[in-house]
Amino acid sequence: MAAPLSKLKKIPRELDHTASHQQKILRLNGLSAIESCTRTEGASGTLFLEDHMLLFVLEGVYTVRFGAEVHSVRKHQMVLIHKSVAIQYEKSGEPNSDYTLNYIMFFLKDDVLREFIQLGDYPASSAADRTAPISVHPVDDGLFSYLESLQPYFQEPERVKDGLVKVKLLELLFGIADRNAGFLFELSQVHRQARKSIADVVDANLYNPVTLQDLAYLSGRSLSAFKRDFKAIYNTSPLQWIRNARLDQAKDMLARSSLSVTEVCFRTGFENVSHFSKAFKLKFGFPPSALKQSPPS
């Protein structure tokens, strides 16, 4: 999958603006769930997850990329993705099923996870325990049938009584936890997430089109605290450091690859070619297009 070429979408906040006619949304008591069925041969994009996301594939392939990690989730599989990360995704249907992709995703808020852990009286994981931000788990026939039984709720969401989504979600989580000790550990750990390293957050999202506000949120800090902590580490402002790092990468990509100026612009986290070209010339003294002609000596 290529680096993101479109604006990063923040979900579930932007669900109402980005959902298509092929998607059906349940939103009750602050919870969100999506059922989607479509035909696709490679639709892709970039998401910034504001809540933990649990996605089940009923048919087709949903590929998730986070840094160097690549996870292709297929039928009878689910993926748990921690909140506060930016991911790239690609939706692919199977050729033998007319490229149909059918999946259900749930957004898990911290208070729901806390209630689940308390209701189940599960032991809390150690604060020192760390799990990967993305994990793929199997879904057996019993859970698969349960997921299929949820689909009628998406047909008439206005008739679903308040609180039912939460009840069904908790029932689903208990069903998974009873079958999968690894998944239970993941759930007991994600709601204890502490502040993340500034360096880790910046490295993971350097070439994603995220704002400083997004990076601050990703690190578990306010914007002012993020700027202060960043300057203490890098001895400069985050805006200046990130812009210079992106421009250095862009110069290297222009010189070493056949990518166009526009492609390099988007692949290094810039969202406007004109702004990218001006910033590039200000830093290096020549426009990016010069490297696609005869590089200066």
Radius of gyration: 21 Å
Q: Could you say how many structural domains there are in total?
A: 2
List the helices and strands in order. Answer: EHEEEEEEEEEHEHHHHHHHHH
Task: Quickly count the helices.
Answer: 11
Strand portion? 15-25%
Low-confidence stretches: 1-6
The name of the CATH topology of the largest domain is Jelly Rolls
The CA-CA distance between the termini, in Å, is 34 Å
Fraction of residues in helix = 40-55%
Biggest beta sheet attributes: 6 strands, antiparallel
Keywords: Activator, DNA-binding, Transcription, Transcription regulation
Domain HTH araC/xylS-type: 196-294
Protein name: Helix-turn-helix domain-containing protein
InterPro entries: AraC_XylS_family_regulators, ExsA-like_N, Homeodomain-like_sf, HTH-like, HTH_AraC, HTH_AraC-typ_CS
Descriptive account of the structure:
InterPro entries: AraC_XylS_family_regulators (IPR050204), ExsA-like_N (IPR054015), Homeodomain-like_sf (IPR009057), HTH-like (IPR037923), HTH_AraC (IPR018060), HTH_AraC-typ_CS (IPR018062). 41% of the residues lie in helices and 25% in strands. It contains eleven helices and eleven strands. The chain has helices at 15-18, 110-120, 141-155, 164-179, 181-190, 198-205, 212-219, 223-234, 238-256, 261-267, 273-284; strands at residues 9-11, 23-28, 31-39, 41-49, 52-59, 61-66, 69-74, 77-81, 85-92, 100-108, 134-138. The strands form two sheets. Strands 2-3-10-5-8-11 form a six-stranded antiparallel sheet. Strands 1-4-9-6-7 form a five-stranded mixed sheet, with no helix packed on it. Mean pLDDT is 83; it is low at 1-6.
